[in-house]
Amino acid sequence: AMPRFKLNSGASIPAVGLGTWQSEPGLVGKAVKEAVKVGYRHIDCAKAYKNEKEVGDALQELYKEGIVKREDLWITSKLWCTDHNDVEEALKGSIERLQCEYLDLYLVHWPCALKKDAEGTGPEDFVPLNIKGTWAAMEKCYESGLAKSIGISNFTVEKTKSLLSHCKVRPAVNQVECHPLWQQKKLWPYLKSEGIHLTAYSPIGSSNSPFADINVLELPTITKMAEKYKRSPAQIALRWNIQQGHSVLPKSTHADRLASNIELFDFEISEEDLDEFAKIEQHRLLRGDEMWVNDSTSPYKTVEELWDGDI
Ligand code: A2P
Question: How large is the ipTM?
Fold first, then answer.
């Protein structure tokens, strides 16, 4: 069975989940079915990915075929920035599209709020962020059982700290970019000290995305370790994250890659080799440039403000 990490909510999150961001319509349903068949039990979704209905349909087929039961799956979704004033309604929308009765984890997608009907993130689209109000509504979702755990995504140390100063229910997870090229050297020790689990998005560096200006899978440390451990570069990158105690969300729509991306539990990177990873010069790939606008109601006027200088 797939190893899990224990969360402060008491729930246990499967170490590997299928990422569905940028999975094309028509492909994502197939990827979900294939993934579950080869052993994935964790699917990472979001309203913003615009494919929850197709994911939900694929899950329904899997239930009907008797391949998996709802209670054996871990399903995550995320509150989009336009829905901060309608948290419960947004959660119910995701549950309806995913046809899953409840979510295992519901995350605040970004520490940003947009107008209800905003289609993009232009200067006129932002509204001030009221994280206190948003989080109180997230806590209600938790108390009602519609979300078994609640958490955040793309929150820095400072933004997490501020949330912890007023929350009743602590976030169980902070889902952020994390891979050997961006190891979250500032955020990770902080989350660890606060008992908040880190889930890594873009764990193999999202190499096909325009923002990925350096290919993680081609880093000399990665290719060297791939040769040494006789594993693929993707497996090395994923295993590095697992050994830090982070769950990972590799995305693929290819059957062979889906299968190999969960074959991570029959080898171990040595302490000595982990030290090599620690020497890699750090570079954030996903800079969130749509999430800050100068000269607007946006809470962040610069990329430094969005990430509190951690870039
Ligand atoms: P594809 O979906 O065509 O398989 P991330 O999860 O970091 O966002 O990275 C996803 C990207 O990495 C996608 O372009 C995906 O392509 C590709 N990818 C997924 N698994 C592997 C693998 N095992 N080896 C190389 N590339 C992979």
Answer: 0.97
